[in-house]
Amino acid sequence: MLATTSLLVLFVLLLTNCKPKSDSDEDTLLLLAVAASRICANSAYTGTTVVASTATLDTNTDCITGMTSSMSADLPAWIRNNFKCAVGSVSGSNYVFRSQNIPNNKSYYFGSTSPRYEALGSGQKAAGTNQISSQCLVYTIPSSPAAKSGTLTGTQSGYASVGITVNGLAIFNNAAAAPDTLSTEAQTFDQYNGHPQNSGVYHHHSQPLNISNNTSALIGVLIDGFPLYGQKCDNNTASTADDTIPTVDSNHGHTAATLLFPSGIYHYHYGSDATAGISTLIGSYFHGTPGTVSN
Asked: Which of 38, 132, 150, 169 is deepest in the core (most CB within 10 A)?
């Protein structure tokens, strides 16, 4: 009974002290799962818990030192050969990613005493006192995504994250926490277009500049299972000379063949978004049925 009570007290304290200020409604799931995140982020899952103030880069993995970067052999090649800084596996009809969510780029939000610190860009301002902290984001993503019929699921429907980048970072939706707008919030992005919210979840709404800068590179996968690319489509050729900015639907997606999916697949692109007032990685709705995310 004492152990159970202690766990409940710990849970309450964590909920009280770690309430995130997320963008849109994503704070709900982060708040409810925050206790589990502090238990989950350990060597059994994602490696030694990273302390931002002392974080260093492992040049062998191109991930933060101590973090596990592992993609299981039963994952498809497009994931095995492109994703890192997370633990990826297959579970039934789903891909599962576990990530500490620590960027492998430098950032103002590591804190000024960290070896990974970098000043904000010209004209940018700090997101309050927010700093990067270790998480344990667990994504369960359908391995055979399909278009959802009927009413689409909104990307602002309370998800802790709407996708994961190829370097293990959270993708957030195309809205900001009221009364801010995302175009205003963009003023707090670091030099790689990322920033953390109050509980330290570093994330991207916009183009992750340590992955690609308006190119046709794979950026990540959204939680409905469909891949996410940069601004351009590679048109299923290795040459960049014929890369083009495609015509996409309101969710930032279209169906076409790419080098990774030569038979064709629906996929998202970074692009202009009227809701956000800036270019974002996803629109207001998922094309498919989203999986789950916990933290």
From this structure: 169
